[in-house]
Write a structure and sequence with these properties.
Number of helices: 2
Number of domains: 8
Low-confidence stretches: 1-6, 15-32
CATH superfamily of the largest domain: Immunoglobulins
Strand order of the largest sheet: 2-8-7-4-5
Number of strands: 56
Largest sheet: 5 strands, mixed
Length: 689
């Protein structure tokens, strides 16, 4: 085998190896995220706790399932290959468990350890308040308990006397570690355990695992209403003489003596129909001296009244704020007043019975009085003798009414301010009708009207709305318009626009350049336009009195001459010149024999002159000029030269000159040649002779 064949064989082997590698790589399974639980937070928790599980799944956007041990919990859909979900720890015994996530499509799964901790709970059956001498059911509950050992609960009750009573109970657990035990205090505790004292009884589960509190008192409720029965119980020795005393607002030391063979004295007291709202105190004491209690048998209860939900409204049916509502029983104020909020609502508590309810606009102005029979919580409306003032501000111009927006109104009684809306209307809400009101009407802080109203009555009766109309005065405005150099500007269009939106006036100046308006009280923007509605100038003026003003349009009425010259400064005729500007409409003139085109009544500013050859639409030159007064502007067309009345391009003219010079040179050279020939001939002839 020669060297060439050996190299060919080696290259063939290398190519075969590379082909095999690339083929294997191409058909190799693509990498995917492996199943894994990334975090469980928290990793240890009680039954019922919400736990966050974060994991990777194999299938992109695939469905996954969550299991707690073998118990299915929930399904979910991955975001890409990322899953995050919350699960609630199910019933399970104390110790280690597994949380598993399974990819539903592939069947792959991942598992992570999780620990269940024991939960300890206390509760009571029934109300959290009992009477002396009665028992309280106590419920002891455990979740996630250790099923391998007997669970014992140490239930402790600390009485208001600070004496501790303890009961040890076994709690039977289910297979999942749940257990519940109910016992009664004091019957299931030691023989001296009791509920004979007023105050808080604190329950402890194994000292610190869980706590709960209930109360013992003398009455069967903490709140009562008139005509309801207050049941009083107190724990003393059998047949011991006990004095019960009730005192409170309007009741001074109602005292009764009771005894009972069981030691649990009881008495029913009916709340009098005239009892006042407020706090009452019940006291029980032994008159025989057998029993002395610490803490003493003292307990409060209240007559809160029924919540009466009032809505105050004016005669127009609108809610009224800051109305003070008072409740009277006879002539006696029975509760603290309440004040309505922005929605007109307020709550006043009244007891069972008949009451007079009064509403005050201020401490001195009674605006409503009604009788109310209270049997329960109710909602009611109080209609207050309050009227709305609706003010229309307008002006009549050329027999047409113009409504005036944004007119200020100052109510002098309380210095409150208002303003008319876009329709020229303002409303002052909820005023007592039988009063005198004064108000100043203004625009831009200047007073144009003072109005006084003695009574807000219609046909001598108060009503929801009292309408008044206020005229906004007009004044005389003369506008003189001038153009350039103070010339009179007749037929100029002049507008006067009130700055707050209305009214609007328009007209044209007369031969003297003047125009007269009768604008409504206010501030105006005066604008001047030419016949093409091009704005020439503007100014602002206060129209609180008659005014004369001049608007100068210095840039209007200018004479602008454009002179077009050639390379040598000679005027070029028959050039079309188009002149236009920011405000100047395009106008065209043709240059005369001296190359000038004159434009009259031009509006100055930044102007542009565009030049066109006669019969052509393609511009040959364009120039911009700032023009502030009448002037002549020269434009040189250096590209052209006027020759014998004809316009030719400068380069053509140069060629002609070169040709002429070349021709002259040829002629001169020819003349000289011929002269040399002639001289030579002459010399030859002379020599021959």
């Amino acid at each position: 085998m020669n060297l060439h064949q050996e190299k060919t064989r080696q290259l063939t082997c290398i190519a075969l190896i590379l082909t095999t590698i690339f083929t294997a790589l191409y058909y190799m399974p693509k990498a995917s995220a492996s199943m894994a639980i990334i975090t469980i937070d928290p990793q240890t928790a009680k039954v019922g706790t919400l736990v966050s599980v974060t994991a990777n799944v194999t299938t992109n956007n695939g469905t996954y399932a969550i299991f707690f041990d073998d118990l299915f919990i929930s399904n979910g859909t991955a975001a890409g290959q990322y899953a995050i979900t919350n699960i609630t720890v199910p019933d399970a015994k104390f110790g280690a468990h597994y949380i598993t996530i399974k990819d539903v499509a592939t069947g792959e799964n991942a598992t992570k350890l999780f620990s269940v901790s024991t939960g300890y709970y206390l509760n009571i059956s029934g109300p959290e308040r009992i009477q002396e001498g009665t028992s309280m059911p106590i419920i002891v509950n455990m979740t996630g308990g250790d099923t391998t050992t007997t669970q014992t609960a140490n239930v402790t009750v600390i009485a208001p006397t600070s004496i501790t009573y303890t009961k040890m109970v076994d709690i039977p657990l289910t297979a999942t570690g749940n257990g519940t035990k109910t016992l009664n205090y004091p019957t299931d505790f030691s023989t001296d355990a009791n509920t004979s004292f007023v105050g808080d009884y604190r329950i402890l589960f194994n000292s610190t695992f869980a706590t709960k509190t209930f109360k013992a008192g003398l009455t069967d409720a903490a709140e009562y209403h008139r005509n309801q029965t207050v049941n009083i119980k107190a724990a003393y020795e059998p047949n011991e003489n006990v004095t019960l005393t009730i005192k409170g607002n309007g009741i001074d030391y109602l005292t009764v003596n009771v005894t009972d063979p069981t030691g649990i004295v009881s008495y029913d007291w009916t709340v009098p129909i005239n009892a006042s709202m407020g706090s009452y105190q019940v006291t029980a004491t032994s008159t025989s001296g057998f029993t002395t209690k610490t803490p003493a048998d003292n307990q409060n209860f209240t007559l809160p009244g029924y919540a009466i939900n009032f809505t105050a409204q004016n005669l127009a049916g609108e809610p009224v704020q800051s109305i003070e509502i008072k409740g009277y029983e006879g002539s006696k104020l029975v509760t603290s007043p309440t004040t309505t909020a922005s929605d007109g609502k307020a709550v006043l508590n009244l007891e069972l019975g008949e009451f007079t309810v009064k509403a005050y606009y201020n401490p001195q102005t009674l605006v409503s009085e009604t009788t109310l029979t209270v049997t329960n919580t109710i909602a009611t409306t109080i209609t207050c003798n309050l009227t709305n003032i609706r003010i229309q501000v307008a002006s009549v111009v050329n027999d047409a009414q113009i409504n005036i927006p944004f007119a200020g109104i100052l109510l002098l009684q309380d210095n409150s301010t208002y303003a008319t809306d876009i329709n020229g209307t303002a409303t002052i809400h909820s005023l007592p009708p039988n009063a005198t009101y004064s108000m100043n009407l203004t625009r831009y802080g200047a007073v144009f009207n003072t109005t006084t109203i003695t009574n807000l009555l219609v046909n001598n009766e108060p009503t929801g709305w009292y309408d008044i109309k206020v005229n906004c005065p007009t004044s005389n405005l003369q506008v003189t318009v001038t153009k350039a150099n103070g010339q009179t500007f007749n037929n100029a269009i002049v507008t006067a626009q009130e700055l707050l939106g209305a009214p609007h006036y328009e007209g044209t100046t007369n031969q003297d350049g003047t125009i007269t308006f009768n604008p409504v009280f206010g501030k105006y923007r005066i604008q001047v336009f030419d016949a093409n509605r091009i704005l020439l100038n503007e100014t602002t003026i206060d129209m609180f009195t008659n005014q004369n003003t001049t608007v100068s349009c210095q840039l209007y009425g200018l004479t602008v001459t454009i002179q077009v010259v050639d390379y040598f400064g000679q005027g070029i005729s028959n050039i079309n010149v188009k002149l236009q500007g920011e405000k100047q409409q395009a106008t065209t003139r043709t240059t005369q024999g001296d190359g000038t085109a004159t434009f009259d009544n031009i509006i100055g500013g930044q102007l542009q002159a565009t030049l066109y050859m006669s019969g052509s639409s393609d511009p040959v030159e364009a120039r911009n000029f700032p023009v502030q007064n009448s002037t002549t502007l020269q434009i040189k067309l250096a590209k052209y030269v006027t020759l014998a009345g004809m316009l030719i391009e400068t380069n053509q003219f140069a060629i002609i000159i070169i040709i002429i010079i070349a021709a002259l040179l040829v002629i001169v050279m020819e003349i000289r040649r011929r002269m040399r020939i002639k001289t030579t001939k002459n010399e030859t002839v002379s020599s021959d002779k």
